[in-house]
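Sequence and structure are kept together here, with a separate record for every protein. A complete record is shown below as an example:
=====
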Amino acid sequence: MLRHRLIGEILVTHFHVSGLDIERGLLGQQKDGMRLGEWLIREKIQTGDRFLQEKDVLRALALQQGLVYQEHDIKPEDVDLSLLERVSINYAKQNKVLPLWFGEDGRILVAVSDPMAYWIMDDLAVRLDSQFLLVLMEAERILSLINRAYTRKSQTVDLANEGDGFSEEDVDDLVDNIDLSDEAPIIRWVNAIIFNAAKERASDIHIEPGEKEVGVRYRIDGILYETKHANKNYLNSIVARIKIMSGLDIAEKRLPQDGRIRRKIAGRDIDMRVATIPTARGERITIRLLDQSSILLGLADIGFYKEDLDKMEEIIVRPHGIILVTGPTGSGKTTTLYAGLNKINKPDLNILTIEDPVEYQLAGVSQVQVNPKIHLTFAAGLRSFLRHDPDVIMVGEIRDVETAEIAIQASLTGHLVLSTVHTNDSAGALTRLVDMGVEPFLVASSLIGILAQRLLRRLCPHCKEPYVPTREELSEMGVDPDRFFAGTADRHPVPANFRSPPVGHVFRHKGCPHCLNTGFQGRTGIYELLIMDDDLRAMSMKKIDANQIKRLAITKGMRTLRQDGARKVIAGITSFSEVMLVTTEDAS
């Protein structure tokens, strides 16, 4: 019978794969630790006049195992929603399985992309508590159907009955003060909002009262996306629940309030900063999610080009001077400062920070929260630090001349000072301090390095597609078209298993179920590192325009934000449009 034949034989007989390719695949799969079909698809093995595809391998498996390959797409309304109660969306996505409906013989039909994953089949038998029959589908088709089916399920469930559209298992990892034994719909709804935000890597949750409903939006990779809605009648209960969780006054509805929640979600420690504000339609809530695992990042993990990483690691260990990180709000400055502190945080150093607010708690570091109500400002905290024998001081932001001058004096008396300012590029930080009222000679003598940075979205590795850019696009990005098409243009280094574009191509975003059809997944940084030397110090003391300082720094080897972004485009990490969007000030 066909089911006893080897998969390689079926691919040769029915799908016209050459025997030589099968032999190569058998060797390659052992070497790379992959399935034969996966290896053949990755290596773009020919089958007739096209490359072998996942559907071909699934058809072959169907022949071998006596199963059915689902040729046509399944509509979400055809899925039996009652079966989704037995399998959480998280489990379904992770294992690429979805129970579909009951067959005529009473067995449940289950869509799978890997019928050889026997451990999943055993687990499904327990979860479904019923006999089932496998239907083979491509992973992307299953993920797409999962998203649409569970969305339909959540839309058909009323808040008064259940609230979140997810099974209890989905929120099992919400612990501490979130009481999962309480089936109250508001509690379950709020739990699901928080859990899903953490699962989708959202940085912020926006709960916004409208005229007839309460809207929820997540900020993912810097972009806001609409998610759930609730009836406006539940607004006060939702707000009260979140206020209780964050220790706020539930009776105070006229004034803004700030609170904090700390939870373990899906095995990750998440700090949440809660802010409420009264609006004409009711109280609005914003929750900032801070994943404590982010503090484990080092300078090598946040997207530095090797040359800049070496320079940054050299100046961060100097005994004195000021290092500034510049960029707009939300550009990752705090993460970079923490990565720098992780590099130098050792028992023989006394490190103190003053922040607004303290976002992540660092072991071995004394961190102070700004509190203007009791006059504990950046300047006041920094002045006090000098009486505590510090080696390294981090100031969350230099906002005024008083803070700037104290920071400079600290750096000139044997302390390393790390801080941030809001400027568009690295050279602009020099003139920004002078504009605050700091003497140019103090700025020049204290600064040792300035890092400008931006965050941009990474292309989704599952759906990014190559294309040939125009010479105009390349020139606009600062890339020599001739070097690019010859394959000699600078590119950012990537891991060995990373999919880079072919020579003469770059990637662009497309969209798939893995990335919520955005084409992007996660973010990385681009950087512009200005290292001060005698020439730059001499120029900065003359109150010369920032553009002239920048031009001099470029002649000394500084790469601009746009140039660093271009290297990441050529490497296949991000897209041309992303770089152009976040580096508009580099165009001149």
